[in-house]
TrEMBL record, chain A:
Keywords: ATP-binding, Nucleotide-binding, Transport. This is Nitrate ABC transporter ATP-binding protein. Residues 4-230 form the ABC transporter domain. Pfam families: ABC_tran. PANTHER family: ALIPHATIC SULFONATES IMPORT ATP-BINDING PROTEIN SSUB, TAURINE IMPORT ATP-BINDING PROTEIN-RELATED. InterPro entries: AAA+_ATPase (IPR003593), ABC_transporter-like_ATP-bd (IPR003439), ABC_transporter_ATP-bind (IPR050166), P-loop_NTPase (IPR027417). One of its GO terms (molecular function) is ATP binding. It comes from Agromyces mediolanus (Corynebacterium mediolanum).
TrEMBL record, chain B:
It is found in: Cell membrane. Keywords: Amino-acid transport, Cell membrane, Membrane, Transmembrane, Transmembrane helix, Transport. The chain crosses the membrane at residues 68-91, 103-123, 143-164, 254-274. The keyword NAD does not apply. Gene3D superfamilies: MetI-like. GO terms for molecular function: transmembrane transporter activity. Belongs to the binding-protein-dependent transport system permease family. The keyword Transmembrane helix applies. Residues 316-328 have a biased composition (Low complexity). One of its GO terms (biological process) is amino acid transport. This is ABC transporter permease.
Length: 256, 341
């Protein structure tokens, strides 16, 4: 059984302008995330990436089609969704509390995760007291604490500076390599997609359709910085850019 | 390799010379006000009309204390009713059912649009408008006929009248609370696998409370004072009406008015303290929005800090400005019961 299976997914929203019109956000999207596979969805803003993730998370109903996940997914939202009345540490501890993890174990795990995302010093801060990037990291730590087999991430490192982003990408890969997670990772960054993924799913501008799937040949474990010296890195970057720009011919020329 | 140019050392900031501002006119005004206040107190203490011995006599009169109890009972029962009906109205206004929405809108419109005194008179006349309460199926011979005046005592009519009027205001308060919750929060909760009721209990209600509690506290205080209108029902065992009745017999209304005022002030003061505690409790994690004075003071200290932090060592030390003290890992367990900061 695969981690996530999306079959013939359509999603339409009522148009805000015209009562009789609908806005098609997703058009016949099918994709498969294998067990322990890391798949990135790459696409321009507004192409329906978040919509796809929200449907996969069971927060929205598809207009047509089906989504199956191996287990309840852990989600990192684009707008982080941290609880403002809980401190950073309490936010991360929340999924553990829900699972009734004993206090000592909980404390240990939270400390570990905070260390991981570099928020140890801010354990006692409330979300309103930390930066947007720190909130995102809190949200990532919380999703990791949730510890499902399926991880859905919606541009989790979008608000971070380059350096922190690379550090967290590296950590995410490390965690993922150690665990059994199937990951669907959403991004609009070509770099991020090819750095992290086993396979990149490229989506077109609205209505969101899948226009290509690109296998990323880099082995595991990956060193994100070293990866950039690999000659294939430039090739794949070029290919993905062309796909995004809709120039399939140029992209295929590279693939030869 | 590109070259790195040398960083220029930053000059130390000069310590700020603070000279306190002088406010001669403000001081003069303060003295004048203190003088006037003292003059008023000394005069009032001697004035016959206040009749302080009578005031002392009646302040703890059994009838007065009982009446104070009745006023409290009216306040809390009416508020409980108002909250319950208010929640129902708020939920009705947010449903998809247009009939329910229209009814809720109409009820709120009516009760907010007429004076509470007039409403209380109306409720008092209930037993003459509907002289009997008929139990049974509509358009059939009733099984049981009750005299309205017998089965609904005036006390409960007063509670009913106060509660329904207040419910219209509570509905708006509750509605504002429900609408204040970011849908992202409930989604995050459901993504964590929390069910509807658990999400309500742990996410929606506590957060809505933060918005609902402070104005509700005001409403309780206002309700306490509004109970003095129940004489319109006419119900005459509340604090104000009772003291007025006592003074009608003794012909000295002023000391009894003072007695009533002191009792009202006593209750409202306690309520205000309680309310500010509650507000603090519910403003947790809301620095910058509902910043408490203590937090603001700490913020001020942090704002001044750069003046002090002239040497690099002190800059490097984490200042922890604005961090809730002791809210580290040890707090995780007590996160729901954690107290106000
Ligand atoms: N609840 C909604 N009601 C109406 N339209 C919606 C709703 N949610 C999303 N849409 C529309 O669906 C389209 C896709 O939105 P979505 O949030 O999935 O984009 P995205 O790919 O995540 O973009 P970004 O990279 O900017 O986050 C947009 O045109 C948006 O207007
Ligand atoms: Mg999005």
């Amino acid at each position: 059984m695969s981690g996530i299976s999306v079959q013939g997914l359509w999603k339409a929203y009522p148009s805000a302008e015209d009562r009789d019109e609908v806005l098609v956000a997703l058009e016949d999207v099918s994709l498969e995330v294998g067990e322990r596979e890391f798949v990135c969805v790459l696409g321009p803003s507004g192409c329906g990436k978040s919509t796809l993730l929200r449907i996969a998370a069971g927060l929205e109903k598809p207009s047509l089609g089906t989504v199956e996940t191996q287990s309840r997914p852990s989600v990192v939202f684009q707008e982080h969704g941290v609880f403002p009345w809980l401190t950073v540490a309490e936010n991360v501890a929340y999924p553990l509390r829900l699972r009734r993890v004993p206090r000592a174990a909980r404390r240990e795990r939270v400390a570990e995760l905070l260390e991981l995302v570099g928020l140890t010093e801010f354990a006692g801060y409330y979300p309103s007291q930390i930066s947007g990037g720190m909130r995102q990291r809190t949200s990532v730590a919380r999703a990791l604490a949730d510890d499902g087999n399926v991880l859905l991430m919606d541009e989790p490192f979008g608000a971070l500076d380059e350096q922190t982003r690379v550090a967290l990408q590296q950590e995410l890969l490390r965690i993922w390599e150690q665990t059994e997670k199937s990951v669907l990772f959403i991004t609009h960054s070509v770099d991020e997609a090819l750095t992290l993924a086993d396979r990149v799913v490229v989506m077109s501008h609205r209505p969101g359709r899948i226009i290509a799937e690109v296998e990323i040949p880099f082995g595991r474990p990956r060193d994100i910085i070293e990866l950039r010296r690999d000659p294939r890195y430039g090739e794949i970057t070029y290919q993905l850019w062309n796909l995004l720009e809709g120039d399939t011919a140029a992209a295929e020329a590279v693939a030869q | 390799m590109s070259e790195i140019t040398r960083a220029v050392p930053v000059a130390r900031p000069k310590p700020i010379q603070a000279v306190p501002l002088r406010h001669p006119w403000r001081n003069l005004l303060a003295f004048a006000l203190i003088f006037l206040l003292l003059a008023f107190i000394i005069d009032a203490a001697q004035r016959e009309a206040y009749d302080w011995p009578a005031f002392a006599l009646y302040l703890f009169d059994v009838r007065v204390i009982q009446a104070a109890g009745v006023t409290l009972a009216l306040t809390f029962l009416a508020m409980i009713g108002a909250v319950v009906v208010g929640i129902v109205l708020a939920v009705m206004r947010e449903t998809d059912n247009p009939v329910l929405r229209a009814i809720a809108w109409g009820v709120i419109w009516f009760f907010r649009g007429t004076p509470v005194y007039v409403q209380l008179v109306f409720w008092g006349l209930l037993s003459s408008i509907y002289q009997t309460i008929n139990l049974g199926l509509p358009f059939m011979e009733p099984w049981l006929v009750l005299e309205t005046a017998d089965v609904i005592p005036l006390f409960w009519i007063a509670v009913l009248g106060l509660a329904l009027n207040e419910a219209a205001y509570m509905a708006e308060i509750v509605r504002a609370g429900l609408l204040s919750i970011d849908p992202g929060q409930t989604e995050a909760a459901s993504a964590l696998g929390m069910g509807w009721w658990l999400t309500m209990r742990k996410v929606v209600i506590p957060q809505a409370m933060r918005v609902i509690i402070p104005p509700t506290g005001n409403e309780v205080i206002s309700m306490l004072k509004t109970t003095s209108l129940v004489t319109a029902v006419p119900f005459s065992w509340d604090l104000y009406t009772r003291t007025r009745d006592i003074s009608a017999a003794t012909l000295n209304p002023i000391p009894l008015l003072l007695v009533a005022s002191v009792w009202y002030l006593f209750f409202t003061s306690i309520m205000m303290i309680g309310q500010s505690r509650l507000e603090k409790h519910f403003s947790r994690g809301q620095l910058g929005h509902g910043a408490t004075p203590k937090r603001r003071r700490r913020q001020d200290r942090a704002d001044r800090a750069p003046v002090v932090l002239a040497s690099p060592e002190t800059v490097a030390a984490p200042s922890g400005a604005g961090a809730p003290e002791g809210a580290g890992m040890s707090d995780v367990a007590g996160m729901t019961e954690g107290d106000a900061r």
